[in-house]
Amino acid sequence: MKILTFTLLLANAAAADAVPEWRDLYERCETAVVADMPFDATGLASRPPPVVGEVVEQAPFRDRIDYRTLATSGRIVPAIWGVEGGRFEVELLEYPARNGTRAICEVVVAHDASALDDAEAEALLVAFDDLVGDRLADGDWQELDLDAGVGTTRTGMQLAAPNSRGCIVTASMTVDPADGYFRSSVAEAAGDPGCGGQSLLTGRRALQRKATE
Question: Does residue 54 carry a pLDDT above 70?
């Protein structure tokens, strides 16, 4: 009984530790996407996105390998940050748009961390529900019904009015305890051709501003 109790205490402590880390990263995402501000990576460590090598023939010389960042589904290469040794990391994805880029800021389980356990998943869902309640009470957000597969919990909210970039903004959390899947995001929704603006990456944003001067 003592061993079981001690194990449960450790699990609850781990779950509690995951919540403030997630909330910090989530709120950085929300601030950047809603307020059209460069993502604040202060105190976070960055890691390079995945790369792929491509053989380039250059006869009569030896072939060379060009490395480029891996992009899928039209994504501009994500910038990735996280707390050293933490449970989560942020991926800032940007898609080409008529007015620049459309952003999706995701908090996911860190690439070198283990999958969420049931206690962590439950604690994060409760924390997100609490956050949604706070946002709805403020009046800037409204409830959003989201479909989810069998065994998957998906909940979210939508900004009551488009952000300054003319984008509908949604925030959601998706958890599937069966396989440890976890995704929390703040996203500018696709569909409105007028949605978009400067990159939320500090360096890229500076280049965009310089190009328009």
Answer: no
